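Lab meeting minutes (informal)
Scribe: AK
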Amino acid sequence: MMSSSPNISPIDVECEVKLAARVAAGDDAAAHLFLQQALPRVRKTVMFLCADHMEQEDVVQNTLVELVKAAGTFRGESRFSWWVDRITVHMASRVISKHIRRRRIREQTWFPSARQGTLEDEMDYRKMQRALSNVLEKIQLRDRTPLVLHHLYGYSVEEVAAMLDVGVHTVRSRLRTGMKKMKQLVLHDEMLSDWMSVKE
């Protein structure tokens, strides 16, 4: 299991573990605070994995329920964000698979992190999001998910493998497949081609 992040003090980890234990014991006030801490991370991850807004809400609500149910499994052996991301990814995969059985769907995901800057910077960022959205909806979810976790959130290949319950070689293969598809899709888009060259 992964060690706690060096950016988080032992006191912070201890507080998170105690809070999770209170949630597991049925403390409603603790559950409210617990979900308040997790919700922004859950929403961000779900936005990158799901295209449909109604589907996003379905995944978010199901993930929050699962987080409360699984609170007793968080013991501070991994980062709280890693624990939340792992549950979110698995719940998203479950819900999306259910939707795929009913209709053909492609999800949009991988966006560069938001930057603090001018209004012009923000407009460029939103433009990049829309352009990537149109491209990435054509990439299969199984290849897209490692791209999100590795290139957006910065998890190592080993961490992604542990999160997805697959082998390291499988993750590397899916990353190669996803990047190859990305390169093909952005070939004729100058803005996205420049961005992709930075990712290589």
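Next up, CB showed the second protein from the same session:
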Amino acid sequence: MACIMDGVSETAVHLPAAAGRDDAHRRLVLQRIQPGLVGLIDGTISTLAPIFAAAYLAGSRAALLVGLASALGAAISMGLSEGLSDDGSVTGRGSSLSRGVITGGATFLGGTFHALPFLIGDVTTALFVAYVVVACELVAIALVRKRFMDVALRVSLVQVTLGGVLVSVVGILVGHA
């Protein structure tokens, strides 16, 4: 354990500033953008399988209710996880309460947007609209990653799309079991 901890400060972790980035921007990214991005990614991707499985098994109403329950449960879980994992004093990532609220809120939004098409009674139409909404969500995530995390847009689109497709396939397979 000692060799793992060699060189680690006992106070705050000071991350090197990226070229052209000031402290205010770094604080914004660490304390607001990153917690929001984590929540948005988790909410968008983790709720796909239960929503799509419910749609294929039981129709639009079930998918809507499973989607809302999944989004709420994931929001609570992610908010608590972010808030309880770090009080900010060691990493400089800011208030645990604000990070938890940001992460939980973003998780809820990410999980809710693609559940809302299931307000449409016809499951085939609702699924089509949900797929379009998911595509928009994944592009939005990729754009935020490009803007604030300096990830190339093409790389980000491939990464988030792969994650979304993998989880969607799980939902479709379970929904057809």
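CB comment: The chain has one domain: 23-175.
No objections, moving on.
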